Amino acid sequence: MRRYMLLGWVLLCLVLGLALFLGGLPREAAWAWSIGALPVAAHVGWGLVRSLLGGRVGVDAVALAAILAAVLLGEAAAAAVVALMVAGGEALEAWAEGRATGALTELMARAPRRAARLEDGTVQEIGVEAIRPGDLLLVRPGETVPADGTLEDAEASLDESALTGEPLPVRFAAGAALRSGAVNAGPAFRLRASHEAGASTYAAIVRLAEQAAAERAPMARLADRWALGFVAFTGVLSLGAWAVTGDPVRALAVLVVATPCPLILAAPVALVAGIGRAARRGIVVKGGGALERLARVRTVLFDKTGTLTPGRPRLAAVDADPALGREAALRLAAAVAQGSTHPVSAALVAAAASRGLSLPVPDELAEVAGGGLAGSVEGHAVLLGAEGFLRSAGIAPEDGFGVAAQVSAAAGSVAWLAVDGRPAAAFVMADGLRQEAPRAVRRLRALGITRIVLVTGDRAAAAAPIARALRLDAVLAGQAPADKIAAVRAESEAAPTAMVGDGVNDAPALAAADVGIAMGAHGTAAAAEAGDVVLLVDRVDRAAEAVAIARRARRVAFQAIALGMGMSGVAMAVAAAGYLPPLAGALVQEGIDVFAILYALSALRPGADEAAPASLPAEAGLAARHAEHAGLRDLAEALRAGAEAIGPTPAALPALTEVEHRLRAELVPHQQEEERALYPAAAARLGGTDPMAPLVRMHAEMEGQAERVATLLRVAERDWPAAAPELRRTLFALEALLRLHLAAEEEMLAGMSAEAA
């Protein structure tokens, strides 16, 4: 407010002086202009003293000298314009910072202060500081979720744009974990608080935003050092012009156009603008220093679980005793898995539910921590767990059984099933890549990141496929937290390094890196506190976007400084030569200042390397087609099972006929719908010449293989021995092609989102 009041005072005196001058009162006009300029000189002088006491050379010394010299030399109008330039520059800086920090300010302003607690059938209005874990809260339409908790009602629709930058409301089902700071975009719902408000997500975000607003950026300090040299150069040039010409007005003209406002203001405004832009994309950067360091990063280290992978295992394959069958084996395993909260158990239950299997309730269920489960299901003794768990019960996989699972175990984990004392099945679990991970790595490469390393506590066999799929430069597996710190420090010695992670074990490495990037959406509070950058969206590609934003902000800051100071240098030379009098020079410098600050604000806009994710119209059906992929993966599993079931007799013919029916009922309509609506919309967003052609070509090949299966089945009804070998080869080929197609399509469309209907 004081900046705007000072600007108003200078404007008032400037206009008054102009009126007096035009009214034939030049002496009174000079007094008015001087009265307007001298308070600004006092303000600048006080700031200069504080800078010197703080150990910094005040770069406003040139402006102070220009105002005082202009008053003493009778150039009161020039003094008033210089004062206007200084006061206007500060006001413009305040406005620019307000624009740049708008997203952070909005984050802090939206922090909930009141909550409605349900107790004994009544609604009590309480302050958020009174919320305790276990409280039942009522969140009404339009209200902000006051604390982290669990949804107690059937569903809720939340606007999470303040947290993630995503504009579309998100629907949650009963039991979902909700984060504070989201806004209720639907009917009222009940929330069971899991944390106090001060320990919830939004409170942590507000603390991060406050940290970001308070830090002074290294580039701003760098500008101070440059300004020192600029002040010295200005002094030499102005005194030289005076000495050569004997005209002190020449020295004044140089001082007037030499005010280094672009140098003082452009860097911090650009960096704060970058912080504001990042906040709008769900990326909280803890200050200009972190942003400036992020812009210089050349090496990125990634944690694996929860960062490059979702951290939630899924059932990838089932290898079962033919006498039992895959479906029956999964049903028994999922039945006992209901009694555990282990991620593998949850994956088995989810896989059974997706196949529509009804699960019996197990009896005599017991869980061995870190080992497995034992129980009775429909009269059968069932064991489910790691290989060591079965061996401790005197059960070992028979020779030849589970070969596929044992091969898969080299890169993943296997849950073994024993029924009535005999090994019955092996369930291969996989924690595959995040869909957006390959895109994130490619974008980092395009941004000039020269080295990308996977650092994980997992086994080398589990880490190698991830690194191979992403084409990473190195893999450091089996790393304890102390090892991760050592790895970060070793990489930092060669180049500025960023570490991306999400767990408690990553927090020390995040703190040790030049820049720690924490996955804050579902990561731990320890990681978020240790990181310099916190991703509020559960997408690893936002790390690459953060780098792009930082690079652009730093580049804009340098460009604004170079352009502003370059124009000031030209104006100084013209003034020293006597072609730019003090009053005209002051007006020119005012224009330069405005240009430099407005240019710095361009960091709020996305650059060429920050292309926004393409969005597809709702009628393209992106979400629906992706939802169908789970069923198609189950179909791929059925293709493999059908191929493996082919033997010397046509006993598998009914099951194969059912698989062929699923190809016609599920695969072909899915592909036709993609080519009708989804692919044309995606091609329009991707640009280029027919970008979806490879996927369409895969569609054609799969349809041809499906027709081949149908033909071979008709032959098999007449001559099974002749058709069986070719039918087996075709089913395996179709399974491999289908899995490859799903992976390729998901990666190609990973950066796209659906627009609201």
UniProtKB/TrEMBL annotation:
Record-annotated Hemerythrin-like domain positions: 626-751
Enzyme Commission number(s) from the entry: 7.2.2.12
EC top class named in words: translocase
NCBIfam families, sorted: ATPase-IB_hvy, ATPase_P-type
GO molecular function annotation: ATP binding; ATP hydrolysis activity; cadmium ion transmembrane transporter activity; metal ion binding; P-type zinc transporter activity
Entry similarity comment: Belongs to the cation transport ATPase (P-type) (TC 3.A.3) family. Type IB subfamily.
Reaction(s) this enzyme catalyzes, per UniProt: Zn(2+)(in) + ATP + H2O = Zn(2+)(out) + ADP + phosphate + H(+)
InterPro entries: ATPase_P-typ_cyto_dom_N (IPR023299), ATPase_P-typ_P_site (IPR018303), ATPase_P-typ_TM_dom_sf (IPR023298), ATPase_P-typ_transduc_dom_A_sf (IPR008250), ATPase_P-type_domA (IPR059000), Cation_Transport_ATPase_IB (IPR051014), HAD-like_sf (IPR036412), HAD_sf (IPR023214)
A Pfam family the protein falls into: Hemerythrin
Species of provenance: Falsiroseomonas bella
Subcellular location: Cell membrane; Membrane
UniProt keywords, alphabetically: ATP-binding, Cell membrane, Membrane, Metal-binding, Nucleotide-binding, Translocase, Transmembrane, Transmembrane helix
Entry protein name: P-type Zn(2+) transporter
Gene3D superfamilies in alphabetical order: Calcium-transporting ATPase, cytoplasmic domain N (3.40.1110.10), Calcium-transporting ATPase, cytoplasmic transduction domain A (2.70.150.10), HAD superfamily/HAD-like (3.40.50.1000), nmb1532 protein domain like (1.20.120.520)
Transmembrane segments: 61-87, 226-245, 251-276, 560-580
Domain P-type ATPase A residue range list: 111-210
Record-linked CDD domains: Hr-like
GO annotation, cellular component aspect: plasma membrane
